């Protein structure tokens, strides 16, 4: 049987593609070192951020309804790094870039060794 070894890519529909691109340029390009390219599918512009493990793709939303994380569909997306020092560094870099990110800390309610920082995308990116 074939084993799934990871996520190849994730598509996010953005209500404001330019604003989303500026936001993710800060996080994915400047803080996390992803690369970026742009392409067109079905006449729609797409912005892809990628590293050697997976891609994160923005595309335009087709309606303007506000995102509800408890409706069916994506609730949240979590990125993994190698070590606690990396979580702390990313949290600090996000805040230095003007992104409201929580302090990196241990969340033992999730797992005994679960360190994280949290941030939200602006609601305009639903």
Automatic annotation (TrEMBL):
<feature type="domain" description="VOC">
    <location>
        <begin position="6"/>
        <end position="126"/>
    </location>
</feature>
<dbReference type="Pfam" id="PF00903">
    <property type="entry name" value="Glyoxalase"/>
</dbReference>
<protein>
    <submittedName>
        <fullName>Glyoxalase</fullName>
    </submittedName>
</protein>
<dbReference type="InterPro" id="IPR029068">
    <property type="entry name" value="Glyas_Bleomycin-R_OHBP_Dase"/>
</dbReference>
<dbReference type="InterPro" id="IPR004360">
    <property type="entry name" value="Glyas_Fos-R_dOase_dom"/>
</dbReference>
<dbReference type="InterPro" id="IPR037523">
    <property type="entry name" value="VOC_core"/>
</dbReference>
